[in-house]
Amino acid sequence: MAVTTSTPADARDTAGAGAEPTPRRRRGRGANVWLGVVAWIIGIAFFFPVLWMVLTSFKTEADAYTPTPKIIFEPTLEQYEGVFSSGIGPYLANSVGATVLSTLLVLLLAVPAAFALSLRPVKKTQDVLFFFISTKMLPVVAAIVPIYVVVNEIGALDNIWTLVVLYTGMNLPIAVWMMRSFFLEVPGELLEQASIDGAPLWRTLREIVLPIVSPGIFATALICVIFAWNEFFFAVNLTAANAGTVPVFLVGFITSEGLYWAQLSAAATLAALPVVIAGWVAQNKLVQGLSFGAVK
Amino acid sequence: MTATTVERPAPAPPTGGAPMIDRAEGWRRRGPLLPALIFTIIVTQIPFLLTLYYSLQSWNLVRPGSQSFVWFQNYVDVFADSQFRGVALNTVIMTLGSVLIAVVLGLLLALLLNRRFFGRGVVRTLLITPFLITPVAAALLWRTVLLDPTLGLVNFVLSPFGADGTEWISEYPLASVMAALVWQWTPFMMLLLLAGLQSQPTDQLEAARVDGASSWSIFRELTLPHLRRFIELGVVLGTIYLVNTFDTVYMMTQGGPGTASANLPFYIYQRAFLGFDIGQSAAMGVVVVVLTLIAASFALRLLFRTFSGEEEAA
Amino acid sequence: MRGAARRRGRGRAPAVLGAILATLALVAGCSGAGALGGADGVETVTVAIVSNPQMEDAISLSPQFEAENPGIRLRFVSLSENEARAKITASVATGGGEFDVVMVSNYETPQWAQNGWLTDLEPYIARTPGYDAADFIPSVRDSLSYQGRMYSVPFYGESSFLMYRKDLFEQAGIQMPAQPTWPQVAEFAARLDQGQGQRRGICLRGKPGWGEMLAPLDTVINTFGGRWYDPQWRAQLTSPEVRQAVQFYVDLVRTHGQPGASQSGFSECATQFGQGQVAMWYDATSAAGTVEDPAESTVAGRIGYAPAPVVATPSSGWLYSWSLGIPQTSPRKDAAWRFMAWMTDKQYIQRVGQEIGWTSVPPGSRRSTYANPEYQRVSNAYAPLILEGLQRANPAQPTVQPVPYQGIQFVRIPEFQDLGTRVSQQISAAIAGQISVDEALEQSQNYAQTVGESYQR
Fold first, then answer.
1. Tell me, what's the ipTM?
2. Is A100 touching C (CB cutoff 8 A)?
3. What is the CATH number of domain A83-291?
4. At the topology level of CATH, where does B78-307 sit?
5. To the nearest whole number, what is the mean pLDDT of chain A?
């Protein structure tokens, strides 16, 4: 069994190593060059809107509106100065706080829950899983006023902890689903072997199970970070001056009377930057984590 | 592969199956699950019950003193509202259309990225970026930078072909919104399916190739069945998230022209925050939940049947 | 493989833990610094405003207020118009109490004053020497009052007028009359329209929204002799006058108007006009500041201004004012008033003029602004027209025939936000060519009737 699990692991892409068996035929390489070209074109096309947004953020407003898009222009940092002088600092801090705290809480709750639903299953596993996913079916917009009223009653409006709790509730179902699949990857024989050897449960968990699912934990955490960071609706309705997050800050740059595309681009770039960097750095882990058994 | 082994309970405790021990074991197993379950129940069911409570009232936020119980009148009004039906249809089209296109595109891209070529890591990085951008910013990007009739890039690119001047958001609102959604969600599907492709045991593929099978039949007979679970997971998760899509519609088209691109969450938002009709919007929310539950039950039971218990010939 | 993973896991855990603790410390530090209030006698006043350029200027000048008032700290929540409205309304209506100062308008003020949600400002005005509330333009002041008492104070006011390219008119040999009519404007637009893909004749808003397209459209309806309701609250949207007005508007923008008309709001038309892509633009008087700014507009200095076009009424400009009020729930009304007074008094106008520029001065609130020679110097092309437009606007009698409501470009009832948006969605679809004007008006009539019935009781 150990051998079988390591074969996909070897084949897995950790640093660009191929998953396909190395083609022994020479002409395979030629076909791959063409595929490479196609892939690059598609990649750039997909990425282009983002690239344009970043470019626009370095333009002056006048340069940003020309009917013929300007590729050559004189770059300026004035838009970013404007964004920073509008006080993005507290919003960033709030976003970081809400995202990190809610993700930690999600992991803290989801890992044991997923464990309970997979390696030592309870009865009615399917029903519990269905319940978790059903909580995401109520459109937030319909529940927002009731939530607002409740949060107001307990005096928790404009409070970062309100967001932490709500984001945790929002991400918990998918975290449970994902972690459960990772746990299902753990070979049963290993657990049997460990318990026959008389190892206590905690040691088994730490030394055997955790290393196998750690890429999965990482992948789940990244998904939660992405959703929590980009969440807009709860933030804009339940926060005011103190607990506003970055998406809320961004919306403040959309004016109904004025032409501010370049400044908006700068704000949007800054808003997206932390998660984009995190996603880029972690995408290897993400693929590894997902392939380790996102689905079983 | 190891699914069947795992589904069975862990080794039974040494002492024989006396009911007391089983119950204790049962609670020990449920233990880890309880914090998450209790938390979820509190955080999600309280709002839901409140929404139900408000849905039975007629309450306009800006007309003080208008709060009164009307029981099921709101629900009757919801189903009599012809716009609601149109919006519901929009939601179905928008959701299923975007999900299916994203899955197909994701599959093609995953197949592409599964091959070796120069700078594969970079291309993968470029391709996942749309998923990481804040939906609010992405929607604005599409609206102003790309699809603006005079200053947008799409028309600029199309101008040599004479197709410029198309007012995308006015003439094809639903398609415009779907384009933005597909752009954002294809990377997610792609990653999922790439993971699936890379977890496929290569010895089978080798064996089939040695046997002389064509690429297409390998794909159809071996790869696709292996990928089926990943595809299904992508479809389920994508659908659940896309049904609730709000930011994109709000930022791109405001549901217009008319209600051509409005989906249910946006429509509910307008009732709640423009009309300040809390009772009506709550009732709509409950209706959406019920409809989604019904649809999801079918889909998920199907999913579970293929997930657990079934041994895949992998 | 597994061994390596285990080693990595152990090595990483302390680092991850350290990072988490550092983050928590950072967050605690930041939020702790921001959450101080009440201690040391410092009051924190939370202000909810709309993110328009004039408001942004106020935020940038606010450190001066804090320097002059050491006991008061300011926190701003700035959102785009739709978001700000929704949030402020929800908060004030449910007594959320997050804000001490809210930005409202002449739409909300009388209604909310009646509901008891806003604080009566007369006592505060009386206690503030030199504030000179009598200096406010009378029509603006009245629109923010309830039973003769002010419940919010104007930050800036606007009417609507017609902007046109003087140079293009000269080239074509057209003379803009002192008071143009809509048929005349349609004719000018036809003559100056160069066709699709080139310069168009006029820019008119087509974007759905009760505050977007419906604002100019309502003035057109009014001046054509139409109205929303008769005195018995029967909806009039399918009456001949309204039909004629809406048909005129839709035809004009479809034939000689800007591309993307059904999604064009203020910003889009500002871009079009400022980039020289349309020859005329009928919209808010506050647009003048934007299109006369050489940093953003290529046609600055070549713009002529005319009063809002009419048909059957003597004037037709709308009346709108962004204003500041204090919710009843605020526990620090004195501090809130101190800030509001600072932001709306004569010295503030001077401050903006001297430190930011006279073109950025918030227009349409005080008469003294228009008597200021420095302001006159930069704005004499349009300022007199704005003042005149504001003074002539009469929300109490906006239409030819009698009506049971007040408001020129809106109907001042709570349901209008929703009703207006729904109706504008229908008409926007007509502009996009998806339905006919008649179909749009039929549907709109249904909506309006439902609302009207609740007032007939």
1. 0.79
2. yes
3. 1.10.3720.10
4. MetI-like fold (1.10.3720)
5. 77
